[in-house]
Amino acid sequence: PLEMSAKKPVPFLRQVVPVRKKVHRDPRFDDLSGEYKPEIFMKTYSFLEGIKKQEKEMVQKQLKKCRDAEQKEKLQQLLNRMTQQEQAQKKQQKLRERELSLKRQQRELAKQGKKPFFLKKSEKRKLELAEKYAELKRSGKLESFLTKKRKRNAIKDKRRLPSQKNL
């Protein structure tokens, strides 16, 4: 036993054996967890897509059966969130595929002995916009998209103009 001074009052909870504190680690920032690679992550957790699809169908069925207005609104919000997440995931996947195709092209050019050429952010944006327009043209929604864009730009221009009451 540890010999203690009689002059000092003994603490109420005296630690006889030192207790090792549990070290919590966050896998997002820890090197032990490895590097995050979206392709591997998507392959590993691809089974979740099926589960999400089933849940979405279940919510749709509940929405059709539901009579309560408040409950119906909650279900509608949940359904909207699910569809938005799905769309965002598809968009992310498209972006990843585009980047991979650009990388493949660069590798092919490097194998041929040519100097690698990397696109600037603005050029990537232009390519993305051109692809979007081509997709809209294919689906036949280009005209409606352009009219909406014109209206938006007209409103912005109107705001930028000085007010007429000052004249």
From TrEMBL:
Coiled coil ranges: 52-139
Main location (coarse class): nucleus
Name of the protein in its database record: rRNA biogenesis protein RRP36
Region (Disordered): 142-167
Family label: Belongs to the RRP36 family.
Lineage: Eukaryota, Metazoa, Chordata, Craniata, Vertebrata
Oligomer and partners: Associates with 90S and pre-40S pre-ribosomal particles.
Annotated GO CC locations: 90S preribosome; nucleolus
Gene Ontology biological process terms from the UniProt entry: maturation of SSU-rRNA from tricistronic rRNA transcript (SSU-rRNA, 5.8S rRNA, LSU-rRNA)
Keywords per UniProt: Coiled coil, Nucleus, Ribonucleoprotein, Ribosome biogenesis, rRNA processing
Pfam families for the chain: RRP36 (PF06102)
Biased composition, class Basic residues, residue ranges: 147-167
Physiological role: Component of the 90S pre-ribosome involved in the maturation of rRNAs. Required for early cleavages of the pre-RNAs in the 40S ribosomal subunit maturation pathway.
Locations listed in the record: Nucleus, Nucleolus
InterPro entries: RRP36
